């Protein structure tokens, strides 16, 4: 189940925010080794506290989050134009009222999500929720930085970005990509979700 959260929900849903920030610390600091600030086990930055982001989270139906991402309008401050600017030989600046930046996309490291198929399922669910939200909100493009290893995941899901730039030498291979939002993209993602469900249920077993 996909839920949309904003800072206005912090008081009503504090545990969901805690789960999200803990997962971000585990993924971006511990697993990927990114230079992010972690305090008391939580990864929280100024875009969370000083701006007004929109969060998409995947809920297993029992109050346990399995994935999350963050959205910011490109007409304001973005990580791409600030924190990530030095990653590239030339600045990559996308600014449009119909383009939003996606950051902190992660599948949460829950014990039940160890299988690659389960991680793909959560990624599908998040991307379907993101595409659906964009279609209903007038957002035409999503821009974001992603690890090169995610290329295969996006291709498998069926919503691949157009690469805009790759990080300069000496930096772990990171790519800036732009995703076009469309009803066709959403249909493809949902087909991928159905396919993953069929494989998990053994429907295609020999």
For the record, what is the CATH homologous superfamily label?
Answer: Gcn5-related N-acetyltransferase (GNAT)
Poorly predicted tracts of residues:
none
In DSSP terms, counting alpha (H) and pi (I) runs of 4 or more, how many helices?
5
Report the count of strand segments: 9
Percentage of residues in helical conformation: 25-40%
First-to-last CA distance: 30 Å
Structural features:
two-stranded antiparallel ribbon; 5 helices; seven-stranded mixed beta sheet; single chain; alpha+beta; 25% strand; Aminopeptidase; 206 residues
Helix/strand layout:
Elements: E1 2-6, H1 14-31, E2 38-39, E3 42-43, H2 46-49, E4 54-59, E5 65-73, E6 99-107, H3 116-137, E7 141-147, H4 151-157, E8 162-166, E9 174-180, H5 183-201
Parallel strand pairs: 6-7
Antiparallel strand pairs: 1-4, 2-3, 4-5, 5-6, 7-9, 8-9
Helix pairs in contact: 3-5
């Amino acid at each position: 189940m996909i839920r949309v959260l904003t800072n206005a929900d912090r008081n009503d849903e504090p545990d969901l925010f805690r789960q999200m920030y803990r997962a971000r610390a585990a993924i971006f600091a511990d697993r990927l080794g990114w230079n992010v600030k972690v305090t008391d086990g939580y990864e929280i930055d100024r875009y969370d506290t000083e701006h007004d982001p929109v969060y998409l989270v995947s809920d297993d139906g029992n109050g346990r989050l399995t994935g999350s991402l963050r959205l910011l309008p490109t007409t304001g401050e973005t990580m791409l134009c600030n924190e990530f600017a030095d990653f590239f030989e030339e600045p990559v600046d996308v600014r449009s009222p119909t383009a939003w930046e996606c950051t902190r996309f992660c599948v949460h490291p829950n014990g039940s999500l160890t299988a690659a198929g389960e991680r793909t399922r959560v990624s599908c669910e998040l991307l379907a929720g993101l595409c659906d939200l964009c279609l209903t909100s007038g957002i035409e493009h999503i821009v974001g930085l992603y690890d090169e290893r995610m290329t295969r995941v996006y291709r498998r899901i069926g919503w691949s970005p157009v690469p805009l730039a790759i990080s300069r030498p000496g930096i772990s291979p990171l790519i800036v990509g732009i995703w076009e939002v469309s009803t066709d993209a959403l249909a493809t993602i949902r087909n991928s979700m159905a396919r993953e469900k069929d494989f998990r249920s053994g429907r295609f077993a020999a």
